[in-house]
Amino acid sequence: MEKKGTYREYIKGLPLSRAYFEQIVYPMLKREYSGYLPRMAASFSGAGSEYYGYDDVMSQDRKFGVAYQLLIPGEDEQTYGKRLRERLSGLPQTFEGYQVLSDDRCGLMSVEAFYEKYLGYAEGPVTREEWRTLDDCALSTATNGEVFFDNYGKFSIIRTRLLQGYPEEERCLRLAEACEKAGKSGQYNLGRCTSRRQWIAASIAAAEFMDSISQILFLLNKVYRPYFKWFPNAMKNLPVLGAELDRNMEYFSILSIKQDKGTAVALAENMCQLMIEELRKEGLTRSSSRFLADHGRELKAKGNDKA
To answer: How far is CA 107 from the centre of its chain?
Structure first.
């Protein structure tokens, strides 16, 4: 990225935004809003690679800059929200050569508005029905990044509850869905399609298999899976089978379905057996079947029993 004939030193979004907040925003809050500071929180969370720490130089070819959320209880909006929002807009709008973002990713918002924005629920999902409506990506987005401080505590209480993962009955149902898809696509359709030389269908089966098998991995680790561009970065660091599945999936992804069909089918089978082994190890299934979809049916019954 060029600036006045020189190259700007690259800095990731999190340290950039944290530095702006600590050097510019927080001192102003201490001077002018000290009476309200006990009711505030601040975080760096949202949709984008920078909120996971996965941003790089290429990330700056889109809207990139300083971002933070200053969070207050919803009931405080009428008291000082408008005045504080105007004060924040009067702070320096560039920092270290980067723009301070002016969209809804940056600035003042209520705690309730933050969770409503990303999850559709002001307190986060609570009931079984509410959990059912959400996907991994939304939950991952709402809980990523870093909390700079939380004096009031409400933001962190909701965040901590969400970070515990899905309720167990919901986790079982999601595991069931993923196991059935991975078994059907990787152990059944992939082999049949390659045997029939149906290369387009085989490629679709391979893609569905990778999506489903990775979903199983994140659910086993009780971690919300990020958007598809970023979950491989997170996958390798997961304690349960993360590094092993990362190696398998990376190799699987570069195979030619046509030229390496035997290897692809065998590798998909191997990954399914890894998942079956772990499901049994954790006591989530008891079936002796080597077909992953059978374990999905057992998990579905378990999830429904817990309803």
So the answer is: 22
* DSSP string over 205-257: HHHHHHHHHHHHHHHHTT-----TTTHHHHHTT-TTTHHHHHHHHHHHHHS-T
pTM, rounded to two decimals: 0.92
pLDDT in tens, 142-191: 999 999 999 999 999 999 999 999 999 999 999 999 999 999 999 999 99
The b-or-e profile of 34-73 (16+ CB within 10 A means b, else e) is eebeebbbbbbbbbbbbbbbbbeeeebeeebbbbbbbbbb
SS3 15: helix
Contact 102, 39 (CB under 8 A): no
Give dist(CA 45, CA 14) in Å, integer: 9
Give 200-247 pLDDT, tens digit per residue. 999 999 999 999 999 999 999 999 999 999 999 999 999 999 999 999
Q: Can you say how many angstroms the Cα of residue 297 is from the centroid of all Cα atoms in its chain?
A: 26
